[in-house]
Amino acid sequence: MIGLIHGRIAAKMPPQLLVDVGGVGYEIEAPMSTFFLLPAVGEEVRLLTHLVVREDAQLLYGFSTEEERRLFRNLLKVSGIGPKIALALLSGISVEGFAHCIQNQDVSALTKVPGIGRKIAERLLIEMRDRLNGAQSLPGATTVPVGTSAEAEAFGALVALGYKPAEATRLLKTVEGTATTEEMIRRALQSAARE
Predict the structure, then answer these.
(1) Closest Cα partner for 165 from 104, 90, 102?
(2) Which residue, of 24, 45, 63, is where some domain finishes?
(3) How many CB atoms lie within 10 A of CB 28?
(4) Could you tell me the CATH number of the domain that includes residue 164?
């Protein structure tokens, strides 16, 4: 099992990226929540991974946080949920948002995610209720991305300040191109204050 990839990003084509590790290129699919935190092409990245072996392919999935990877693995245990649907879920809703939906039995929020119909949403509510551990089921649990990019550190700081992951990602999108972590946080907070 490949559990971690550390190398340079050779290419990014959402939801896929190519990571060069010592001259070997690994094709990895990642949820959009992870994709938004990736550094630029040519920079180093560190991703937690999950390898799916099928009869016709070996697919590698990458995640910026342990919470995302844990949820992905738990989703694969639900009957009728494959890697593509699990990836769509993680791209469309945060780990905390998913836990909130499960706790509140919110079918309508899950069906807003592309590719998730009512039957799958109801199955998720039933089968995932007992699978979420304490850290995932607490609303507002902090998920700090793995890695050392300024954007990942700023994301972690904004989440620690109480912003939801989706809000933090949106705020960081408004300050792209800023060099330091501190500057990104300062500009993101200024952007939030103007709203």
Answers:
(1) 90
(2) 63
(3) 23
(4) 1.10.8.10
